[in-house]
Amino acid sequence: MSLTHWVRRAGARRRSALPSLLFGLLAVAALGGPAAAHVPGVERPPGARPDPGYVPHLMHMGPNLPEVSKASLRQQTAARRLLRGTRRLARRFGSVRAAGRGGYHAVGRWSSHGIRHFDSRRAETDGHGLDPRRPESLLFWRGPDGRRRLVAAMYRWPSDARPPQPAGPLMRWHLHYRCVRPSRSRREMPFHMCRHGRVARSGTSSMLHVWLTNDLATAYAMAPPLDALAAAYGLR
Length: 236
Hints:
The chain has 236 residues and is of the alpha+beta class. It is built from 9 helices and 8 strands.
């Protein structure tokens, strides 16, 4: 049995039937339920100007893993640099307690995958973007051995501006959204996952996860790459 299947079965035993969520999209469930739905505003970093021609990437669009071969050597180098910088966070925030001392506090509950977000209001409002020294969120994983490990950082960018793409196609900045009745909001767009008469309304910030795995594809996965994380931490 793969680790992914083990987690799913364990989660199924723990959970009672949940009511259908208005946010009820696979993206939210995969990334931590209520934690992933928490989309605060972020202070606009320098250069993050509103761009009316920018169409953000909604969850549910595209495969979970990027195609590394589509990135140039320069882009792959940039992706590795960001991954190395993100990995250094483990020295400062190797435990939930250390994260709390650094201003990162739990949001929502542990997901069925054992993932939970810890957000920093300070980092959300410091005007820095895509900075591995001060990510907006940290993600901890409660693995099969019960230990809670830092396994990812999540970076935010204003959803009405084009986010930085130093790693090109490896960086799938994405939005969580909900299906609503149309209004005049600039953050609404037609989307096939919404039933007739409704549109997708996005959050105020785009998000990018960088997972602490041993390869670029899984490091830039959209959903938690549980098997790759287990391999990186010697759990399989």
